[in-house]
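Hey, I was hoping to borrow your eyes for a little while. A protein chain has come my way and I'm curious about its shape. Take your time with it, there's no hurry, and the full record follows here:
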Amino acid sequence: MAARSIASGTISFGLVSIPVRVYVATQSQQVSFNLLHEKCGTRIRQQVFCPHDETVVERNELVKGYQFARDRYVTFTDAELKAIEAAASPTIDIHEFVPLERVDPIYFEGVHYLGPDKGGEKAYRLLAEAMRDESKVALAQHVSHGKERLVLIRAYDGGLVMHEMYYADEVRSFADIRTDGVVQLRDSEIELARRLVDQLSSTEFRPDRYRDEYRDRLTEVVEKKVAGEEVTIAAPAPERAEVIDLMEALKKSLAGRKAGGEEREMAGAARAAKRRPAAAVQRREAPAPARRAHKK
């Protein structure tokens, strides 16, 4: 089933304009719940209550307000906010191209796919391939949902993807985070930590290797409840003991990773042997001299 776009726009840089369409790139698979009245099982309705008038307020009676002092607001109508939004540029204006590795992921907020709109196919392809060949991404701005957003556009899987970003003043300084001062590290500790990092390292990111185990457990329980089965919830796993001896913890981690790797290799070999025909196993276990003699 073809994806449906949620908006259209125009990428603009220099004198080039590329009509594009915006598509949702991700979707949450989290299990969601509704709030029910426990007594009768009816789904509740949430209402807006005014504590001053002590009455329920309808949605069409609401206006947006900006608090500039305690209990003091200036109000805005939808028309006023629309006029402010319309004053900004409706296009996705590219300001500069930079290497992707120079952009810290802390600035990333959300992501959408960009596809070419009618008449923009060639320019779209040229931009995607040029950025891919130069290993550069584009920093741009555009208006969406009443906010002028900073975005990053990059080549992705033969096309373009757009990441919404935070502005610099929206990212809090790490200097406000306590790190308990300077800690002296011994060379032996650093070496063990590096070895553990090396053992846990992979050459590439494989997102398909990870699953949301909480969601799987919850879905299983939901299915049992729907089927009318009795559900028994297992006790939570005990918390890990506090690390007292860092060196000992690093050594145990390394030993555990090594033992786990050997067990996985043995299990993999056993599974492979089961899949092979008996004759194939016999040929593999035949002594090497016998095979050489047979070749002669």
In short: The first strand starts at residue 7 and ends at 13. Residues 142 and 149 are 5 Å apart (CA to CA).
